[in-house]
Write a structure and sequence with these properties.
This protein is an all-alpha fold and 173 residues long. It contains five helices and no strands. Helix 1 runs antiparallel to helix 4, helix 2 packs antiparallel against helix 3 and helix 3 packs antiparallel against helix 4. The structure holds fe (ii) ion (2 copies). One fe (ii) ion binds next to helix 2 and helix 4.
Length: 173
């Protein structure tokens, strides 16, 4: 069993966001193997650097996708991303300064943040998408209603037959 296992409840879009998250999960596992096997600091630093670059790229992509979709909580979400990037750079600095404690804590810090962020924060995007889909379906089913049903719920134009009949006058000469 992997140190950080991918699970169905981490699925967000079945597309680019999940692909990025899976890559980050793999990197955290790689980092865990390196630190638990006591591989040298240079190896750990290289993997951490790949984590940082991939995370930065993922967060940028995710924010772009969210913006395109009109995700309403984007500003708050971005603050969470920025906070995490600051933490990552701080960890990298500490690791470069030779802190052994940081090396042993790295994978658990990354796993916990990523797991929580995907399952709680990124999941908001999925909920938003589902709300939108329900809304679209509701609008769609309303427009396919019979005109009488549309009038009953206040939609659509009144049917022509409901208008008073025009008096049949003589055509003007
Ligand atoms: Fe996110
Ligand atoms: Fe994400």
């Amino acid at each position: 069993m992997a140190y950080f296992a991918w699970a169905d409840d981490m699925v967000i879009d079945g597309g680019p966001i999940d692909a990025d998250h899976r890559l980050l999960v793999d990197l955290v596992n790689e980092l865990h193997t390196a630190t638990s096997e006591g591989q040298g600091r240079a190896v750990v630093e290289t993997i951490l650097h790949r984590v940082i670059v991939s995370t930065q790229e993922h967060l940028r992509n995710e924010e772009q996708i969210m913006a395109q979709m009109g995700f309403p909580d984007l500003d708050n979400h971005k603050i969470g991303h920025k906070h995490f990037m600051d933490q990552l750079w701080d960890l990298e600095k500490k690791l470069q300064a030779g802190s052994i404690t940081v090396a042993s804590q790295l994978s658990s810090v990354l796993r916990d943040w990523l797991s929580l962020h995907i399952r709680r924060n990124d999941k908001e995007l999925l909920r938003f998408q589902r709300r939108q889909a329900r809304e679209q379906a509701r609008k769609g089913s309303a427009s396919s209603m019979a005109p009488s049903a549309q009038r009953a719920v206040g939609l659509g134009k009144p049917a022509t037959s409901a208008l008073p009949a025009l008096p049949a006058g003589k055509p003007r000469s």
